[in-house]
Every structure is written in structure tokens, then in C-alpha cells.
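Hi support team,

I submitted a single chain yesterday and got back a structure, but I'm not sure I'm reading the C-alpha cell output correctly. Could someone confirm the output below corresponds to the sequence I sent? I've pasted both exactly as they appear in my results page.

Thanks,
R.
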Amino acid sequence: MTASRASTHPQDDPGDANAAAHRLALERTRAAQAEAEAQPESTWLRISRSAQLGMIAAVYEAALAGLGDDAVRRCMDHIRPLLGQTCGSDFAGKGAVRDALAIERLLRNSRVEDAAAYIENCSRLRWWVALLGYVLLCAITLAFWLLRR
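Hi R., thanks for writing in. Yes, this is the structure output for that exact sequence:
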């Protein structure tokens, strides 16, 4: 009798414990998403937060559907740097929402590798844009400095 109880206890079966953790995380993420949608902030900031939380929820849903723990960990490692990357401008807000929704769609279709590649391309593009901005700033500063001499 105790053996049958022990086998149904979540801590005894790692798969059940992981599923319970994923279910709890999914519930919390969905609650946070509903809360984000109800906030009286700017429209794009609210939509962006909701889209990011939807992206995370897609990972947990994929985990509950049988996605392996390593794949879940890899997805979350790729997604984590994207969280909180919202800007006040409509253009940047639309881009963040578009990226989050595309990643969520890929994850919902069980295309983890495609989602990871999409995230890497987004971050690589942001890195190049930041580098270009820095070079332009240095060039403008140097030009003003030379003109003052």
C-alpha cells in the first residue's frame, strides 16, 4: 500500500515532478500575461509584455506536450535575453511584438531549432545595429572635434 502511494507521489517520479512544475509555471505565466494586458500603460508596452509572456507560455506548453528538459532549458536560455527589451517608440514596440509572436508560433509548432535560430538572428542583428550606431557616434564626434580645431 505504501509502495503504490510512493509511486503516485510527484517527488518520486521526476517526470511527474517536471510536468507539475511546468504546469505551475504555465499557470503563473498566463496569470502574469492577463495582468500585463490589464495594465494602464502605453499600448505597445502592454502588448509587448503580453507577447513576451505568451512566448514563455508556449515553451511551457511544449514542455507539457513532451518537449525534453534539455530543449526547454535551451529555449529559455535563448528567450531570457529578450525579456524586458521593450522600447517606448511604436516602431521598436512593433518589432518586439513581431519577434515574440514569431518565436511563440515556432515553439507552438514544435520547431525549437527554428525558434532558436530566429532568436540568434534577432540578437545578431541588434548587435550589428548597436555597433554601427557606436561607429557613427565616434565619427560624428571626431568630425566635430576636427572642425573646432
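A quick pointer for reading it: Helices lie at 2-8, 14-38, 43-64, 69-79, 90-108, 112-148. Let us know if anything else looks off.

Best,
Support desk
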